[in-house]
Design goal:
heterotrimer; A alpha/beta; B mainly alpha; C alpha+beta; A: alpha/beta; Rossmann fold; globular; B: mainly alpha
């Protein structure tokens, strides 16, 4: 299992322009495997930017991010994509399911570029959907799902390539208390399986939950002690 | 029973259309062969009557016998005839044809 | 199956699902696209078939036709020109032709009256083209009355109807005897409409034509090659006119298709971000979009071509008949023989499939190379 390490990571938007903005400044952080870690902070604190960099969605302006000792930040885009696909699963705040596609089609999306045999991918999808109680909805278009179902679909999609690390951006922001609690249960189950979960949140239900191993607080692009 | 994938259905449709496309080529070859006697009769008619043109456009003499037309054949017949030279489509007929005498 | 092929199939799956989201719009697009290909392909197939057929048939037409010109107009040619030209090396046979036009006020049609070289009908009999027979509603043994140049009525018994299969060249023909022809049009003995020469070796045609111009300076020789060229050009031109007329419609479609294909909505842009975040490479996104363009344009091309083939060769280009007919009353019934020019089809393919596919890919390029972290913002 791989550890994520950040060394002196900075992210500046609109660099060298009048509206230059330092979203992240000099962050050193170590994220242990098989743990649920929460990046906590108010909106605009830079936690989502940090999450995007860790998930290989964007690059730091300076500094270094390593995964299991290998430096990610300097890799060309092709390899970044490769690492992202093999290592990370994403759950977005808005779920970002693709409208017009069915639940199972949405779940299979991250696996398309791998070109798995159709039966194998179908079986894998069916297993995941069954595990998250979505089997009856498999052929339903995603716009007809309830909030909880949409999120479980997003979780299935994040898990289809069997990633080591799950990245969730404000996973409970669009859920009510009951569904939030349910999500924490699911997250706990995933950590118990041996996965690493890294999420952002400003919801006390999340970072005060006993299921969370570690909380990292961020404010104005810096770690709070 | 898994549903057939959309891609496979589409590729099947595409293959069917391509097959039909190839079929038109075979069909064309076959119809050409079948038309050989008719073509021979047409050629015989042309040869025995010493014909030089198709009787497709009988509206004016320079369209009936295109190859025999005068060098300035347009504008000779009906004032509103559809001219077959590009200028005929762009220019009105000469006024001496349409004005009252 | 290799994983690369399976991957293409998955991308195609995605594209089809994505197209199925707006079924009305995309089916409409496919329909209009198919219609355009259908029109273009119909014109191409029809004109090419007709041109090929014309060239194949007119191979048998006389090698040289000699017309006399008087003050720039075609005039009757005296029979003694046959003697005047003397013996020219390579000319097998030379003879005078008698033919002319007749406007029949009864059906407002133009006929071509002609004296055949062999097997001339009897003095009061005529043989008529199948189209005339159909238009005037006459059969074998019926009587047709025509008024001559000096307004004398002539009655003819129809002694033969020309082979219906040869309508393409004989639709408006009336064959009659030489004596009747001269009487009917008041053409004195010793004059012909034009002269025709049969030549042994086609390579000698030019030399013979040059000699003719020297010997008979007031004539113009029309070579068979010129006849064939005329037909080659006339159909190219008619095809060109149809294309010009259609250009407006095609351009309108191009604008619509360009807008549809290249305009990237915010939703699509976001989708691309999601796909990239989920681990699709830029190349995968572009391949998926390539399929989107290819699905629509390939299908439109194939369907349009198939419909055009059926239209031209199974209904004898029924839609074009009014255009080709023009002002003519007599229109030969004929089924075009399917001569197909694969190069033409390939050109049509390139001009219909490629631009659309490229138009779908290009805007994606810009969107696809942006960082995928947009989706998190």
């Amino acid at each position: 299992m791989k550890t994520i390490e950040l060394h002196q990571v900075c992210k500046t938007f609109n660099q060298y322009q009048p509206n230059e903005f330092h979203a992240i400044r000099d962050i050193d952080l170590r994220i242990e495997p098989r743990q649920a870690t929460v990046l906590k902070g108010p909106s605009g604190s830079g936690k989502t930017t940090l999450l995007a960099m860790i998930g290989c969605l964007s690059r730091p302006t300076s500094g270094r991010i390593t995964l299991g000792g290998e430096t990610l930040s300097g890799l060309p885009e092709r390899f970044m994509t490769e690492v992202r696909r093999r290592t990370f699963g994403f759950i977005f705040q808005q779920f970002n399911l693709i409208r017009g596609l069915t639940v199972s089609e949405n779940v299979m999306l991250p696996a398309y570029p791998l070109g798995l045999p159709r039966e194998r991918l179908g079986r894998k999808t069916a297993e995941l959907l069954a595990r998250f109680d979505l089997a009856p909805k498999a052929q339903l278009k995603v716009e007809f799902l309830s909030g909880g179902e949409a999120q479980r679909t997003a979780i299935c999609r994040a898990l289809i390539n069997d990633p080591e690390i799950l990245i969730a951006d404000e996973p409970t922001a669009n859920l009510d208390t009951r569904l939030s609690a349910e999500f924490m249960q699911l997250a706990h189950g995933l950590v118990a399986e041996g996965r690493t979960i890294l999420m952002t949140s400003h919801d006390p239900e999340v970072f005060d939950s006993p299921m969370i191993d570690r909380v990292v607080a961020i404010r104005d692009g810096r770690l709070e002690p | 029973m898994p549903r057939p994938a959309k891609a496979d259905l589409f590729l099947l449709l595409l293959a069917l259309c391509t097959l039909l496309f190839l079929a038109t080529l075979f069909d064309a070859a076959q119809r050409r062969d079948a038309a050989a006697p008719q073509l021979a009769r047409l050629r015989a008619t042309v040869a025995t009557l010493a014909l030089s043109d198709l009787s497709l456009f009988t509206e004016a003499r320079y369209t009936r016998h295109l190859s025999q037309a005068d060098r300035f054949a347009a504008f000779q017949d009906h004032p509103l005839a559809l001219e077959h030279f590009p200028s005929g489509s762009l220019l009105p007929p000469p006024s001496l044809l349409s004005e009252a005498r | 199956m290799s994983s690369a092929l399976r991957k293409q199939r998955y991308l195609l799956d995605y594209t089809l699902s994505s197209l199925a989201r707006r079924p009305g719009k995309n089916l409409g697009l496919l329909l209009v696209y198919t219609l355009i290909v259908f029109m273009l392909a119909s014109v191409m197939l029809f004109t090419h078939a007709l041109r090929s057929e014309a060239v194949a048939i007119l191979q048998e037409s006389p090698e040289i036709i000699v017309q006399r010109l008087v003050a720039g107009r075609h005039d009757l040619i005296p029979a003694h020109y046959l003697r005047k030209m003397g013996h020219i090396r390579g000319v097998l046979e030379r003879k005078g032709r008698l033919w002319g036009y007749f406007f029949d006020p009864a059906v407002k049609a133009n006929y071509t009256l002609m004296v055949p070289d062999e097997a001339q009908p009897a003095a009061d009999e005529i043989e008529i083209g199948a189209t005339i027979a159909a238009t005037r509603g006459v059969g074998l043994g019926d009587i047709i009355s025509l008024r001559s140049a000096d307004n004398r009525p002539f009655s003819f018994r129809v002694s033969g109807i020309l082979d219906a299969d040869s309508q393409l060249v004989s639709a408006d023909l009336i064959l009659l005897s030489e004596a009747t022809f001269r009487d009917f049009f008041a053409i004195p003995e010793g004059l012909y409409t034009d002269l025709v020469l049969r030549v042994r070796n086609p390579r000698e045609l030019r030399t013979i034509a040059e000699k003719l111009i020297l010997l008979l300076p007031d004539t113009r020789p029309i070579l068979r090659d010129e006849v064939l060229r005329t037909y080659d050009a006339i159909f190219s031109w008619r095809q060109g006119i149809v294309f010009v007329l259609m250009a407006g419609a095609v351009l309108a479609f191009v604008i619509f298709a360009w807008d549809k294909a290249s305009g990237l909505s915010g939703e699509e842009r976001k989708e691309i971000g999601v796909l990239k975040a989920l681990g699709w490479e830029t190349a995968d996104v572009i391949r998926m979009k390539f399929w989107e363009g290819a699905v629509v344009s390939l299908l439109a091309f194939l369907l349009g071509y198939l419909l055009a083939y059926a239209h031209v060769f199974y209904t004898s280009a029924a839609l074009f008949e009014p255009v080709l007919k023009g002002w003519a009353v007599l229109y030969p019934e004929f089924a075009p023989i399917p001569y197909i020019d694969l190069l033409q089809i390939a050109t049509l393919f390139i001009f219909t499939v490629f631009p659309y596919t490229v138009a779908t890919i290009i805007p994606i390029w810009r969107a696809a190379i942006t960082d995928p972290d947009l989706v998190m913002r």
